[in-house]
Amino acid sequence: MTDKPIAFPAQSVLPAALRITVPWKNGGGVTSEIAAFPAGSGLHDFGWRISTALVEKPGPFSCFEGIDRILTVLEGRLRLDFVDEGRTVVLGIGESLAFPGDVAVEGTPLDGPVRDLNVMTRRGAWQASMHEDRPQPNGADVTLAVATR
Prior knowledge:
Mean pLDDT: 82
Low-confidence stretches: 1-8
Shape: globular
Order of helices and strands: EEEEEEEE
Number of helices: 0
Radius of gyration: 15 Å
Distance between the termini: 31 Å
Helix content: under 10%
């Protein structure tokens, strides 16, 4: 969806030990950044961003204007309450949900802490999809495989 060149080696390994820990925009926790583009971009100027987070207590999601999100639960169960829509979704391990990053969402971990995987893309410039255990050789610009264990 973009004509921006990406200069990644054909195959890269991004060790968990080298991940950058960043406070959430709303201050409610921290996230571990796996990868972002362009290199060196922050929370306000990334084209796309992939991270994991530990959700230990109920609270609002950070608002990201003009960003689309895909959230996948890696551990635990997470209830998402879409405040303005009056809609609730519960995600278990391996379940994903795509939603705009600029809608009001409250997250509540059920039965203990939740670890999630977040894929965020700048709307209109980048697009992402999530597939579990099924490589998608579709000519995508970037394919990222995340080992969760």
